[in-house]
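Team,

Forwarding the record for the chain on the shared tracking sheet. I've put the sequence and predicted structure together so nobody has to dig through attachments.
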Amino acid sequence: MTTLAAPGLSPASALRRLYFARFAFALVWAGLAFAVVDDLDAVAVALFVLYPLVDVGAAVVDVRASRGTGSPILLRLNMAVSLLAAAGLAVAGTAGIPEVLRVWGTWAIVAGVIQLVVGVTRRAMGGQWPMIVSGGLSVLAGGSFVAAASAAEPALTNAIGYAIPGAIFFLIAALRLGRAGRKG
């Protein structure tokens, strides 16, 4: 059985597999979330907690896959931030939608900054422009989620929709990494 960071894979190949997996997960997650999240019930909270936990797992795979290509400090920081976000979302889920949006938005901002910086440091690898753009958009989206928490009737739908552009950017990055690998 192969893993996302199988021994012998180049960092670009391993990241390509990871990005395809993240694309698929984000689409499935968004579809499930849109289908079942009408209110902030246990299923909704579990889905919102799951998303940053998958981000932690992806960062672990990324650290293993990209050994020797730079410092893993930012990826480890992302793991910590995403673990805190998952815990924060579990707690916020008991308090209401505005609190979930505030935690989700704050996580999107911090994780977006990290994604942007990691993408910039990996530019030479190829396929990173979608990650750079995605990181920047994540910062903006996070700010909108925090702002939406103060709305008269805040909703989770925009926060769920946040996963779809992210999925598309992961797909584009995976495809670009494949093209970069064939050129190199």
